[in-house]
Amino acid sequence: MTEKQLETPIITTKLLKMQKSLPPQSIYTKSNDGLQLHYFFYENPSSKACCLLLHGFTNDAHMFDVVANCLSEKMNVLAFDFRGHGDSDWDKEERYQHADLMADVFTLINRFDFTQWHFVGHSLGARVAMLTIEKFQLSPSSLTIIDTGPEVNAIGVRKVRKDAENTPMTFESIEAYYQFLSRIYFLADPERLKYLAQFGLKNLNGQLVAKTDPAFTRALWKADSNQGNANDLKKPLEHDLWQTLNQITCPTLILRGQASAILTQTTAEEMQARLANATLTIVPGAGHALMLDNHEYFEQALCAFIGKNLQR
């Protein structure tokens, strides 16, 4: 069998103009349980601050490429691929619980001696960020929670799970993968989605497959439940995350897509009230994937917030 080849990713002219810094370092590190984990490091030697970017379920670090370049002009940036995602290893033992992801994040940041941290998480990444801060008693300079909360919309969560479970086993090409993604991210800027699709497949035994381990879905959700609420997840429960919010004191930005099917306005407002120092920003014309749907608004809001809280 002739192995299928992935085309070299091409950054479009529009995206190239937005990328102002040097390409990041692509680095692999070991988890505590022996997996190879991948991250991008955008180094800024003039700064002792670092922004940690954590992607959502079935996504990878490339989701943040453009905003990472923007942020790296003033600080260091780490964009992490969770285990079972992106260019990190799939775990044969299916250790994909939130506790495993939290341990990976804590191990990663302990490799650096930055004096301040800014945590940014989208969806699953935001849950992991919140729980990591609370469990390990971290004191970040800021936290950005992107379109998720302790309580989530049942219809939206069922769609996320169904999309993951219905991902084809193989794809004929990057174009076929892009067409699949476009049916999921129907509000996304096509140019951004095409760019993302270029990084979403890998060659496995001569076939092009999505980089997210299918076992991650089985590990994340209860096998006998499909209610679509936060308690449908094996861990954490709604109560755990609400309690976590009560412990977070750093400046926090909550970004919610105006048309989000995951985070309701009511839950977002309750999160803002529970947090000690929170700002709620609604991103117009966006659903759950803010960085694809209305990327300019998202990037401006995030960079402005972190810049405001960047300690000189």
Polypeptide structure, described:
An eight-stranded mixed β-sheet has the order 1-2-4-3-5-6-9-10, with helices on both faces. It has a single domain (30-308), classed as Alpha/Beta hydrolase fold, catalytic domain (Rossmann fold), CATH 3.40.50.1820. With 312 residues, it is an alpha/beta fold. It starts with 12 loop residues before the first helix and ends with a helix. Helix 3 crosses helix 4, helix 4 packs across helix 9 and helix 6 crosses helix 7. It contains twelve helices and ten strands. It has helices at 13-18, 65-71, 98-109, 124-135, 154-165, 174-184, 190-197, 215-220, 238-247, 265-274, 290-293, 295-308; strands at 25-30, 36-42, 49-54, 76-80, 116-122, 142-146, 201-204, 207-210, 252-257, 278-283. 36% of the residues lie in helices and 18% in strands.
User: What is the CATH fold-level name?
Assistant: Rossmann fold
SSE ordering: HEEEHEHEHEHHHEEHHEHEHH
Taking the sheet with the most strands, its summary is:
8 strands, mixed
Distance between the termini: 57 Å
Q: Hey, roughly how much beta strand do the residues contain?
A: 15-25%
Shape: globular
What structural class should be given to the helix and strand makeup?
alpha/beta
Give the proportion of residues in helices.
25-40%
Radius of gyration: 18 Å
Short key terms for the protein model shown above:
312 residues, Rossmann fold, alpha/beta, disordered N terminus, 18% strand, globular, 8-stranded mixed β-sheet, two-stranded antiparallel ribbon
